[in-house]
Design brief:
This is Antitoxin component YwqK of the YwqJK toxin-antitoxin module. The chain is flat. With about 500 residues, it is mostly beta strands. The chain contains 1 helix and 39 strands.
Length: about 500
């Protein structure tokens, strides 16, 4: 009889628990949905004055659990410890609440289970504690980092490699709200502090993987370099610079330690600067891994200026006399000479220049051909001077090489003619459609449609008016206005949406 009563009581308890538990389904945005469309689901169970919430991923793995006095989705009022989990079942965050507010310890972990945040929330809403970032190729963090917070404000950050007592730098927030940085070398020895408090300052850069000192520069209070050194990744000295009261020098070495350049400075008392006088001035790229340029000085003037590409290959060599460019030689990556551009009266005269993605050909001081390429080295546009030398004929292509526009632009030496003037033909799917004429940036006849940052715009001339239509990225008309074509010159501005510039034709990427 006693056994029967116990079984009946157990069945009653189980029955109460089953009927007390509720289940709600949510989509990927945590909006209520049906079981068929759910990505998450929630089970709630009364626990005294509170309710236990358990959220699950679609596959039944626990996503979150915690007690709450209000279980309204997206407006829960939690009380006590709440834990969130990754889809793999690892703890992601543990936070303590009091009546819906974070109060007490909060800890977060990354996908590898490493602690990323360990803070303590106070009753006023601020927190103390630490945040962690880890050196990880997958997450593209080059260094380990620990940031200490006081009253929710970063008070100290340590950036280090493997051993926090070895190579590192430390940023501090001072009592007056300023900042201070301490730099350390591979052995953990202090290199210096910036600011130093003497009006001079210090800057130290580091290589990643492994962390090594790449550059140390000391600056005077006026911002000029007092002394500096650059190291190669193998630790060898690449460059050293030092300026004294009357003179200075900069010496450059290769990665084996061999001296390859030496530049002498002379103090200019009138301007309180150090002027390069004689020798070779080597410049390095942003991370000091490649030579980016070499300037050769003689008697205080540059006579040769060399530029190198990202691979460290010579790309151009400028020859100067009395600080005036005489010619520029351009080289291909294999070292072969591509072109020699000569100058006359300080202007390009004969030859071809290669600047970035633009190739410009000159003949007796006149631009006869301009080619612009995209990042994939495909021809984006070409503009040629016609045989009569009265106008340029231009063609613009899309990224697939299909013609978008052709235009004829008169050769006008009048410098006051700042705005775009041309006869334009627009193409759609490689076939000519709209024709238009532009004079000083104002549409004179016809119609043209252009791609813009937020969609496209269409301009059409109608009598004394320019009709303007703006379309969104979805192609729908969002604005339609009209503007007088012949507006006063003082109002003629490229800010006028009804005006057209040559660059507008190129905006299609």
């Amino acid at each position: 009889m006693k056994k029967l009563f116990t079984s009946a009581l157990l069945a009653l308890v189980l029955s109460v628990n089953v009927y007390a538990q509720e289940k709600t389904y949510f989509d990927e945005n945590w909006e209520k949905t049906t079981q068929e469309n759910m990505e998450y689901y929630r089970e709630t169970t009364p626990k005294g004055k509170l309710t236990l919430i358990k959220d699950f991923y679609k596959d039944g793995k626990l996503q979150m659990e915690g007690l709450a006095s209000d279980t309204t989705p997206n407006s829960e009022i939690f009380d006590g410890k709440v834990t969130w989990y990754t889809p793999e079942g690892k703890v992601m965050t543990i936070t303590t609440f009091s009546n819906g507010k974070q109060l007490g310890v909060s800890q977060s972990y990354d996908e590898k289970g490493r602690l990323t945040e360990d803070v303590n929330y106070k009753s006023d809403g601020t927190f103390d504690g630490k945040a962690f970032l880890y050196k990880d190729v997958e997450s593209e963090y080059f260094y380990n980092t620990i940031t200490t917070y006081e009253n929710s404000i970063p008070a100290k950050t340590i950036v280090y490699d493997e051993n926090i007592k070895r190579i590192r730098y430390e940023n501090y927030t001072t009592k007056d709200g300023g900042t201070e940085t301490k730099y350390y070398d591979e052995k953990g020895k202090l290199i210096g502090t910036a600011p130093s408090g003497s009006g001079e300052t210090l800057l130290v850069d580091y290589y990643p993987n492994p962390m090594r000192v790449s550059k140390i520069e000391k600056y005077k209070s006026d911002g000029s370099v007092k002394e500096g050194v650059i190291y190669a990744k193998n630790g060898k000295l690449l460059q050293e610079q030092k300026n004294s009261k009357k003179e200075g020098y900069k010496t450059t070495y290769d990665e084996s330690g061999k001296k390859i350049g030496h530049l002498v400075y002379q103090y200019d008392k009138e301007n309180d600067t150090f002027k390069p006088m004689d020798g070779e001035d080597y410049q390095f790229n942003y991370d000091s891994t490649q030579i980016s340029g070499i300037d050769i000085y003689k008697n205080g003037s540059i006579i040769i200026s060399k530029s190198f590409d990202e691979a460290g290959k010579l790309s151009s060599e400028k020859i100067l006399k009395d600080d005036i460019t005489q010619e520029i030689k351009y080289y291909s990556p294999d070292g072969k000479l591509k072109s020699t551009l000569t100058y006359k009266d300080e202007m390009p005269y004969n030859g071809t220049s290669y600047e970035g993605l633009t190739e410009t050909q000159y003949k007796e001081g006149v631009v006869v051909n301009t080619r612009i390429y995209n990042e994939e080295k495909k021809l984006k546009s070409e503009k040629k001077l016609n045989s009569k030398q009265t106008a340029y004929d231009a063609i613009i292509y899309d990224n697939k090489g299909v013609t978008l526009y052709t235009y004829n632009q008169p050769l006008n030496e009048d410098e006051d003619n700042y705005f775009f003037t041309a006869q334009i033909v627009q193409y759609v799917k490689g076939k000519p459609t709209n024709k238009s004429s532009i004079k000083k940036g104002i549409l004179q006849t016809g119609k043209i449609k252009l791609t813009t940052l937020n969609g496209s715009k269409e301009l059409e001339r109608n009598g004394k008016w320019v009709l303007l239509k703006l379309y969104g990225t979805d192609g729908k008309l969002i604005q339609e206005t009209k503007t007088l074509a012949d507006i006063p010159e003082e109002y003629s501005s490229t800010e006028n949406p009804a005006m057209l510039s040559e660059d507008d034709l190129y905006y299609f990427d």
